[in-house]
Amino acid sequence: MTTTPTAPAATPAARARALLRSPILLSILGALLLGSVMLLGAGGNPIEAYAAMVDGAFGSTQWRNTLIVAVPVVGMALAVAVPLRAGVVNLGGEGQIVLGGITAAVVAATVDLPMPLSLVAALSAGALAGGLLGTIPAVLENRLGVPLLVSSLLLSYPVVALASYVVRFPLRDPGTGLPQSRVFEEAYRMPVLFGIGLSAVVLAVVIALVVQVDSRTPFGYEVRLTGHNRRFTEYAGVDVPRMVTRLMFTGGGIAGLIGAMVVTSVPYRYIDGALVVPGYTWTGLLAALLARANPLGAVAAGVFFAALQVGGFGMERETEVPRELSSILQATVIVILAATVAATARRARTRKDTAVSERPSSPEGGAVRTRTGTTSAGEVDS
């Protein structure tokens, strides 16, 4: 009885070397190094600045602020990462999160339900609205050939304008001069459990479902295969247009759910611009790119970027270093990551081309060919 040889298990030293060569780790270290150079040039102390940033993000009282920012950032990172696994770029997250938020606000203002049905209705309506908005670019591309990248981005502008009109007129709180809705009733307020908002628990459930579907189902395998080679997946019989529609609905649904969760959390009202100005969508996009569309990696990257944002305020208070340094670090991480990935791919292509050029020829000096219209080595063409 013969046994199939198995590859030797990687040693701890080999795993450590692979981790050190990781493009993500190299990009983060490179960004921190560049930030240190900038701090030294401005007369600052990099060690003190970074220590203040860490304490400002994960201190005894500050970690809750980081969690509050991390929930929408991680959610928007997943909204991008889910379709990005198949090579589909969803740039409509801004419209999807806004539509989810304003839909939840409309439900809270018009539907009288007891707790917890009230929250379930608001969150479900927001997720459904975001999902339906996400499917529009997919349908336009599948039926009319409109590029999904362009249509998903452009659809956000009328949606944001519509939400601004709704909150400024039909839903406006007459007691204030600000473009915001009335404070929601108690039944539509997200509760807090053990010092953590229920929104974080809901997001954790969404993360678990996304990871489960991505790693353990045939659909997740087809999605990853489409991201590697869409044409091959189509030849294999997979309905790629339908898959793209489902992925865009899922991504838009996650974004709409995040908008609904933010609106039903403190201050329990929809405020015009509150879902756009913080840049949750674009920070989530950066996190998804940093994680290279891996769902768990997108979670870690989203928390990392949220910590940079919150820690930047602590760094500014303690060391007088402007918090804009955190934005510079975010951009630098992505630029270095893109350069590292491109260089790695270029080296791989070079090695492949070198291996093909150095492949030994047949004994007669001719290349080995298949029998599909040609002869193999050692035969003479008839």
Descriptive report:
The protein is mainly α and about 375 residues long. The chain has one domain: ABC transporter involved in vitamin B12 uptake, BtuC (Orthogonal Bundle). The chain contains 15 helices and two strands. Strands 1-2 form a two-stranded antiparallel ribbon. β1 (about 190-195) and β2 (about 195) form a beta hairpin. α2 crosses α15.
Short summary:
By secondary structure, this protein is mainly α. The protein has helices spanning 12-20, 23-41, 46-58, 63-84, 93-110, 117-144, 148-154, 156-168, 198-216, 218-228, 230-235, 240-263, 280-290, 295-319, 324-357, and strands spanning 192-193, 196-197. A two-stranded antiparallel sheet has the order 1-2.
Descriptors for this entry?
disordered C terminus, single chain, mainly alpha, two-stranded antiparallel ribbon, ABC transporter involved in vitamin B12 uptake, BtuC, about 375 residues
Briefly, what CATH class? Mainly Alpha
Q: Number of domains in the coordinates?
A: 1
Biggest sheet character: 2 strands, antiparallel
Number of helical segments with 4 or more residues: 15
Helix coverage percent: 55-70%
In percent, how much strand structure appears in the residues?
A: under 5%
Principal-axis shape? globular
The CATH architecture assignment turns out to be Orthogonal Bundle
Q: Gap between N and C termini, in Å? A: 45 Å
In sequence order, what are the helices and strands, one letter per element?
A: HHHHHHHHEEHHHHHHH
Low-confidence stretches: 367-382
Rg result: 25 Å
Mean pLDDT: 83
Question: How many DSSP E strands?
Answer: 2
The CATH topology label is ABC transporter involved in vitamin B12 uptake, BtuC
The computed structural class is: mainly alpha
Strand order of the largest sheet: 1-2
